[in-house]
Design goal:
The chain has helices at residues 11-22, 73-91, 127-141, 161-168, 184-200, 219-230, 256-260, 270-279, and strands spanning 3-7, 26-31, 42-45, 61-64, 98-104, 114-116, 146-151, 153-155, 172-174, 178-179, 181-183, 208-211, 217-218, 236-238, 251-253. By secondary structure, it is of the alpha/beta class. It has a single domain (3-159, 183-212, 252-266), classed as Rossmann fold.
């Protein structure tokens, strides 16, 4: 049994924590408001933006699953840079076996339908990716072994923003733009998989993995398919615009590395994942 700290224990963190508890691990969930931390996870009320001296001793593994909350530079700095600095300092001389940092495929700057994998270059041209990359580097430069997991667009229970926009008729898509996504169950599955590999044999866990499903898909195809499932009007298609935020996702991201590590996706494509979500 391992002693695991989940820092920034929100949606993904709580789901992961429950899975780890089910697997027999002792799990601590750190967040500002602990009211929503489920039974089975030991709550720690603390703010990552300030130093904390109430962390449990003898922690084996850390998952840093904090999110910015707002799309502002200050929020991103506090979540992904200041928070990481403080936590690494707070952990002090503890013998942490591995620090898992949850990042985003947004750090890949390609936007011309390129194929992207872990070896592809990143871009810090906007504040959000700059702060994410700063946080990643802090983890990798620390004395604790670190692993970065970059997730694509996450959907699942409680993450139905796209469905809500479609139902309200408030969405458009750009033709020819690729997108990459992952169901929250597979986010949890990947992190649990990597922890199991680390416990079994730490030399098998690398410093960087991408977490997306097995089917990069044209954005309009996803929107049109979902509109049909929801029985709502067709989505308006638009010509691509370089300045659009949708264009930042115009890449085809490979999950080959995590698949080759032995992980089997519960929802390998958007159709299977969204069907389950709509049924629920």
């Amino acid at each position: 049994m391992a002693k695991v700290l989940i820092a920034g224990c929100g949606g993904i963190g709580c789901e992961l924590g429950l899975q780890l508890v089910k697997n027999g691990h002792e799990v601590f969930g750190l967040r500002r408001n602990t009211a929503n931390i489920p039974d089975g996870i030991e709550p720690i009320q603390a703010d990552l933006s300030t130093p904390n001296d109430n962390l449990p001793e003898n922690i084996d593994y850390v998952f840093y699953t904090a999110s910015a909350g707002k799309y502002k530079d200050t929020a991103y700095y506090l979540a992904y840079v200041s928070g990481v600095k403080n936590l690494l300092k707070d952990l002090g001389s503890q013998n942490i076996k591995r620090f898992f940092f949850i990042s985003s495929t947004a750090v890949f700057g390609q936007n011309d339908a390129e194929t992207v994998d872990e070896s592809s270059p990143t871009s810090d041209s906007i504040f959000s990716t700059k702060r994410l990359l700063e946080g990643e580097q802090l983890v990798l430069d620390s004395e604790i072994p670190g692993t970065i997991v970059r997730f694509g667009g996450i959907y699942g229970p409680g993450r139905t923003h796209l469905i809500d926009l479609l139902q309200d008729g408030k969405i458009q898509c750009m033709d020819g733009v690729w997108s990459n996504r992952i169901h929250s169950d597979d986010c949890v599955g990947i992190l649990n998989h990597l922890l199991n590999k680390e416990i079994e044999n730490s030399t098998n866990v690398d410093s960087l993995y991408i977490g997306v499903d097995s089917q990069p898909t044209l954005l309009c195809e996803v929107y049109d398919w979902l509109a049909e499932q929801l029985c709502v009007p067709d989505v308006e298609h638009m010509e691509p615009k370089e300045s659009s935020r949708q264009m930042r996702s115009n890449k085809r991201i490979s999950n080959g590395k995590i698949v080759n590590s032995g992980y089997e996706f519960k929802y390998p494509d958007y159709q299977s994942g969204y069907k389950q979500l709509l049924n629920e």
